[in-house]
Write a structure and sequence with these properties.
By secondary structure, the chain is α+β, with helices and mostly antiparallel strands. The chain is built from 6 helices and 12 strands. It has a 12-stranded mixed sheet with strand order 7-8-9-10-11-1-2-3-4-5-6-12.
Length: about 240
């Protein structure tokens, strides 16, 4: 072998080694669907912050929300339903909501007029708020992703915003579960990158914590900004919902 050939072979070997070292593959693409979901659950449970942008449909029309989660049930964002948008803050044991048009739509014009542009505080156990905890509590999100599902299979590989992913398909064939797909990162921590709901929940679910009684018929949620710095501050001078009668 000539010196030039040896040099070329050495460079090729070095390039192969560097590519392998820099690929960042986490091995998820080679695992079973159940094993992937187990790893996803553990990864989410260990995350202290993330962002979720969701768009979907339910019986009332389009439903959209954006959530920045700073820690367990410590979040802020916005939600849109029936064509009206509201801001929200979830801090400690209180959920705060602001949006005149939103209150007009969901509670009536009289209530909207009384509230105006003020923040309103609701107990975290209020209807609707408990369902939001599925997304604002990393532990609960981990439980829902890891256990509340139908028959699983693998759906090949894909990418989400330039990040490689392996796809786990949920048949949604058990009571309270919905058919869909979960896109899981195949480099770094196996975080969920995207969650798709492709059909309505199967009737008969016994849990509401993981969307068992959700009216959402389809949706698409994209996760990012894991473990980033997010600041959440409770609004001052919010109106207590119980004082509105």
């Amino acid at each position: 072998m000539s010196a030039g050939t040896r040099a070329a072979a050495a460079l090729a070997g070095a390039a192969t080694l560097l590519a392998a070292c820099g690929s960042g593959g986490n091995g998820e693409a080679d695992k079973s669907a159940g094993a992937i979901l187990s790893d996803v659950s553990a990864a989410v449970r260990g995350a202290h912050s993330y962002r979720l942008i969701f768009s979907g449909k339910d019986s009332s029309g389009d439903v959209n929300f954006e959530i920045d989660v700073a820690s367990k049930n410590n979040a802020k964002g916005s939600l849109t339903s029936q064509g009206a948008t509201a801001e929200f803050v979830y801090s400690g044991s209180k959920f705060y909501l602001r949006g005149r048009q939103f209150f007009d739509k969901v509670a009536g014009a009289a209530v909207g007029q009384r509230i105006g542009d003020h923040w309103v505080s609701l107990p975290s156990a209020s209807a609707g708020v408990t369902q939001l905890q599925e997304f604002t509590d990393p532990g609960k999100l981990a439980d829902c992703l890891g256990s509340e599902h139908g028959t699983l299979s693998k759906g090949g590989t894909s990418s989400v915003n330039g990040k490689d992913a392996v796809v786990v398909v949920d048949a949604g064939d058990k009571p309270g579960t919905s058919p869909g797909k979960l896109y899981v990162a195949t480099s770094g921590s196996p975080y969920p990158l995207k969650l798709e709901q492709t059909g309505p929940a199967k009737p008969g679910g016994s849990t509401t914590a993981c969307g068992g009684n959700s009216t959402t018929t389809q949706g698409n949620g994209v996760f990012d900004e894991y473990n980033s710095s997010i600041s959440v501050t409770a609004p001052k001078d919010a109106i207590d919902i119980s004082t509105l009668g």
